[in-house]
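Quick one: structure tokens for this chain, please?
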Amino acid sequence: MNNFFKSSSYRLFWLAAGIIAIVGLTGLNVYLLYQQQSNSVEAARQSKKIHIAEFAGRVRHRFIHPFHGIQTINFKKFAQSYHQTGQFTEPFIETVDKASKDSIFKAIYLIPARSYPCYRRKSILKFNKNKKTFLPADTINSVICDGLRMAKTRMRGLIEGYQFNNKVLFDTHRSMTIALIDLNNRRVVGYLVLPINRSYLINQYIKPKLAEEFGGEESRGITVWLMYWTKQKVLASSNPDVEFSRKKIQYVYQFPDYFDDWRLYASMNESLLATAQNKSFIYNLIILGFAFTFLIGALVFMFITAKREKELSARQSSFLANVTHELKTPLSVIQAAGENLSDGRIQNKNRLKKYGSHIYSEALRLRGMIDKLLSAARTDAGEAFVEPKPCQIDKLLAKYIDDHRQYFRSEGVELDLSIEENIPKIMLDEHSFHTILNNLVSNAIKYSDDNKFLGIYLTYEQKNIILRVKDRGIGMSKKVRKQIFEKFYRGEDLLTARTKGYGLGLAFVKNLVDLNKGAIVVESKKGEGTLFTLRFPALFLEKNEEKRSRSLQSQKIKS
């Protein structure tokens, strides 16, 4: 036996054991690094896809911007003025005059709703920039007639339930038509037809914007082409030096509700982040090569290094993800309020003041959140960023509902709210509660078809505060329910595929509920809606129970 321990076979055994252990750890570490690299590349590509969609949205806004303010015009008075005097209202002329100076439109034509100039070959009205009024047009071309026919056809199906005083319609890249709507009488009073200056649009707007937004392939890692897909013709490119090839295309974006014949084709290369990940991957392989040389010493070194790297990477990923999601909540509220103000829907001074106060408070909340996160980032990224304190959850819920009633109305949500009286206080971080509720409410609305029902119920049961959020949306299968709280997981149905998201919301909800010493469960059936139940332990149980008992007894006596 002693000879065995001294023999070379003993040393070879431990050498083989060390090599096998190192190979196993190396393989695991290589796999984790590869997964991290793949996730980074995918995240970078997803960011670029969002960038392309935002660019398409800005192109559409470029057409609508010259007519900013048209939503404030009363087209009932417009129609009456023209019928009685043959003149147009001053706000309308001012808006059209401003738009006529924009080079993106060749001209501006006005056709009364009940006029059929294309069939009867009658003249239509054309805006004269010098005289700042509409005069009879000399000719009528097919672009005007096609745009008018398309708009009239569309408006026959839309006018019944339409809520705005104008509707913008596109005839591919040829013309833009604005239907002018008298909301009082629920009718279209006229159409503005604007032939699009395609040369200006492509050469002086889209080409410079593509270069500005996406730059060169080496600096941005992406090349975007504007394609006339039915003719297989490249109209513009963010990098003219890169030749178009279908083999390079990794993403195709269709302009929503306009430019039917045009597409944005994108070729994406690895970003700077992916390049850094590749370098890290190579460096670790070199270290692992040295580990094979040093055997047991390298084994210990790699074990400690891999463990620290994994923990650090996990903390950093979790920190960045939480920061991004936390910041979106107040920004969404500010954006919604700002959109209502910019659209001119709010005219009452008290409501304007309320909106301004709301935006100001959310901005302060956002600033406080940023300060807190920056402070935490200077310490350990793995620390929990919640500060629970005694609070009255029923008041927080009531304030949230009051702040979002306008949003619920705008989304057509049927709200069923029930808050039980004498709810005890709980230990809760207010920012966390706002984020939790905002995610659950947002999901309930997003994942519902036409039946947008939202039920929120707050009760006190068995020394716990119970918050239930219910919808009648698409629901979830048993398979989806098991994974719904996992990061980056999303269902695979058609509505989910059409809805923007990254599969982070419910994962953050679960994490924040846990950090606030609560629990969350989900009940759902496919096609029958979903119910989320949150449970938090109550504070000051004895005092609250005594107060609640007296209140119940008082109610019984009165009844």
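The two ends are 92 Å apart (CA to CA).
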